User: What shape does this take?
Amino acid sequence: MEFRQQEGGDPVKRFERLEQIRRMDPVADAPEIYRLSVAHEFPWDYTRALELALYRTYAVPSIGRLLAQTAEMTERSQKRYDDTALLLDAVVEHGFASQEARTAIRRINQMHRSYDISDDDMRYVLSTFVVMPRRWIDAYGWRRLSRHEIVAGTEHYRALGRHMGIPGVPETYEEFEALLDAYEEAHFGWDEQARRVSDATLDLMASWYPRPLAPLVRTATLALLDDPLLRAFRYPAPSSTTAALVRCAVRTRGRLVRLLPPRSAPHFARQNREVKGYPNGYRPADLGTRPVPGLRGCPVRHPGASAADASCE
Assistant: This one.
């Protein structure tokens, strides 16, 4: 068995945290289970899965078009990536009751209130956060998610949905999955502005690696996309050989991780090398956008916004 010494404690066996998770209540202990899963068991996989979750929302034209109009993903891609990761991470790391999480959720809500975003789109985006990690980890992780982790992740995002005031949030993982599949079947489609957001995101991902590797990174990323996404953005499908090689490589990484010692300390999104914009630290209250009405970045006021929201904050 592989071990890693805990700080000031006994060695941790590879499956010890899974055993710990299975002894917990998946609903009552959902925050701790989700934190263990995200920060100890699968930090790399959750990062990739949540990147894919947000990316696939661009294929819904109403979402992709709005992101293009704000210019956040096309002109300030790295900052948008950093802020999204850090705001969501604050809730995971510190818990919903913490000051950090309350501030992060307040910022998320202030930004969303600046735009005319439908409840249907909001529910769909939330569903990607629930469903895509399970699908990614089951395909590429060092083990599959346990039922406890699936339920805990669902409960985490149900709580986030409540804090964001999203009505009609599904109650179970299966309901989230059905919502996601039905919404994508009904709404995925071509939009020129959404394609610009997609291209900018692929360029951002390639920028994290040495420049000569950029074409390879783009090809590998496209090879991990499913056919409905490729069709919506009108990308040529990679060859079956390329897709098989890339997916085999990611699965092999998962098998190798299984042989490594487990983590002795949590790894949160703020520690990811892809988060580059705040080398001197940050405060959740300072993250995100503060668009000004009438200027690029706040093209649409939400019809339900109050006078207090007139600054688009």
